[in-house]
Design brief:
469 residues, alpha/beta, 4 domains, 6-stranded parallel β-sheet, 5-stranded mixed β-barrel, binds S-adenosyl-L-homocysteine, binds iron/sulfur cluster, binds FE3-S4 cluster
Length: 469
């Protein structure tokens, strides 16, 4: 299945090769896509370049999820234009979701030479070579099949501990506010054999944590094309990945409340290395808004899923996404979101104001009629509430001991390390000679709303998993 030219998981840095600089915006899937792009370009003779000033090729992997994400990237194009003025041998390629959404409009920008959508990365070497004709190049064809299953992403982050694996692409849900189905195309699941192979290679290369990615992991379904009665669903895939080694943690994102079944929860309960954390975007606490958003669950249905998580996985953390100020949202609808947040008490949340995306169902059918200052006020109310809840939830960890996988030095100091507890909370503690990739047991002494602060319990620093084995 895989070619013999198997790449290392680390970037090859060679200044004799043409240099590519890659900038990434958007979600974790985009980060992983940039790693796929680097793999394709390394094979085509390029080497990763850490500085934009030395690059022959600048690639920007873009995001369209909200208007401010796009504006930020459009602002960067001015910088690239200057770079091209300074040095004539620089080419600029726009990849990802904005490339797919804006197509020729982006190509006509003087800063841009190549526009390549999320399913056309295999074509990049040809697009780059074709620039010698003097013509700009574009490929934004979306695919029904492309999963880049045979390409080994080259990991750019260098933390060497935690890695993303995309298990599917695209999305078949049509949440009315969301641009993703238009820019990423139809949902398709990746061959589980290639996923397991990639996870095993990462483990062999010293990685200790795998994060399985999809817009809606619960609808993962692989049907063997040569024998359609052979199928693998998400709970089964999760189990296969967890079985690779009890010393490799498994995480996943994103779960959809309408599809997250109990099977996944029972699988999580069975394998201690599947981390007890579920990211379960709610978007709104109001049934009227959920209906209009086309989320296909109700507030009650969502709360039932949360209750089931607590029943099957008592120490599981739950995080969420929420949108404030969606079309026609009343104060009452907003208060429904506030009351849901008080009821669920999420461990963390990504909180956004509604941003109308052109051509989505919401843009076509509903008016974006909540004034910006009302959107901001509602968002701020949700943020203030969630910050208080995050702090209170974190305070409950004080005095407790957790297994932490060390990711590296903390932002503040080299004397301190940062890692995560299974519930995905970040934790900092004095290094005491330990290093990235080790499991340690940490006792929590204090916290903020974002971080746990603790110390390694020396006599217990052997992993719980080591003890079981
Ligand atoms: N597939 C994931 C979410 C992907 S996008 C899911 O279904 O949950 C990440 C988050 O961005 C969404 O959960 C939503 O909260 C937010 N988002 C998406 N479109 C948005 C828009 N038009 N305006 C504001 N926030 C949006
Ligand atoms: Fe967008 Fe909905 Fe798909 Fe998530 S599930 S990517 S919010 S359409
Ligand atoms: Fe953005 Fe595309 Fe991800 S729109 S959030 S980069 S799928």
């Amino acid at each position: 299945m895989r070619d013999n030219n198997y790449h290392s998981v680390k970037p090859l840095l060679d200044n004799k090769r043409p240099q590519v600089y890659i900038e990434t915006y958007g979600c974790q899937m985009n980060v992983n896509d940039s790693e796929v792009v680097l793999s394709i370009l390394q094979k085509a003779g390029y080497s990763l370049c850490p500085n934009i000033e030395d690059a022959n090729l600048i690639l920007v992997n873009t995001c369209s999820i909200r208007d401010n994400a796009e504006q930020r990237i459009l602002g960067r194009l001015d910088v690239f234009r200057l770079e091209k003025k300074k040095r004539t041998n620089v080419k600029v390629g726009i990849l990802g979701c904005m490339a797919e959404r804006l197509k020729d409009e982006l190509l006509s920008n003087p800063a841009v030479d190549i526009v390549a959508g999320p399913d056309s990365y295999r074509d990049l070497p040809r697009l780059i070579a074709s620039l010698s004709s003097g013509e700009k190049q574009i490929n934004t064809i979306l695919s029904q099949e492309e999963t880049y299953a045979d390409i080994s992403p080259v990991r750019m982050d260098q933390n060497g501990v935690s890695a993303y694996i995309s298990i599917m692409r695209g999305c078949n849900n049509v949440c009315s506010y969301c641009v993703v189905p238009y820019v990423r195309g139809a949902e398709r699941s990746r061959d589980p054999k290639s996923i397991i192979h990639e996870a095993k290679e990462l483990f062999k290369n010293g990685y200790k944590e795998i994060n399985l990615l999809g817009q809606n992991v619960d609808s993962y379904l692989w049907v063997d094309p040569s024998n359609p009665t052979k199928k693998v669903n998400f709970a089964q895939l999760l189990e296969l990945v967890a079985l690779i080694s009890p010393k490799m943690r498994v995480r996943f994102s994103t779960s959809h409340p309408k599809d997250m079944g109990n099977g996944v929860l029972y699988t999580m309960a069975m394998y201690p290395n599947i981390c007890n954390h579920i990211h379960l975007p709610v978007q709104s606490g109001s049934n009227a808004m959920l209906e209009k958003m086309n989320r296909k669950y109700t507030r009650e249905g969502y709360l039932e899923r949360v209750a089931k998580i607590h029943e099957i996985l008592p120490d599981c953390s739950i995080t969420t996404d929420v949108i404030a100020g969606f079309c026609s949202e009343t104060d009452r609808d907003h208060q429904d979101t506030i009351s849901l947040f008080k009821e669920v008490r999420f461990d963390n949340a990504f909180m956004f104001q509604y941003s109308e995306r052109p051509n989505t169902k919401a843009a076509r059918k509903f008016k974006d009629d909540i004034p910006p200052e009302v959107k901001t006020a509602r968002l701020n109310e949700i943020i203030a509430l969630q910050n208080a809840i995050s702090l209170e939830n974190n305070q409950k960890t004080i005095g407790q001991k957790y297994e932490v996988l060390i990711e590296g030095a903390s932002k503040r100091s080299d004397e301190e390390l940062m890692g995560r507890i299974p519930q995905n909370k970040a934790c900092v503690f004095p290094a005491k000679g330990h290093k990235a990739g080790e499991y340690v047991t940490v006792r929590i002494n204090s916290c903020t709303s974002a971080t746990l602060i603790g110390e390694i319990i020396e006599e217990e620093h052997k992993s719980l998993l080591d003890k079981i084995l």
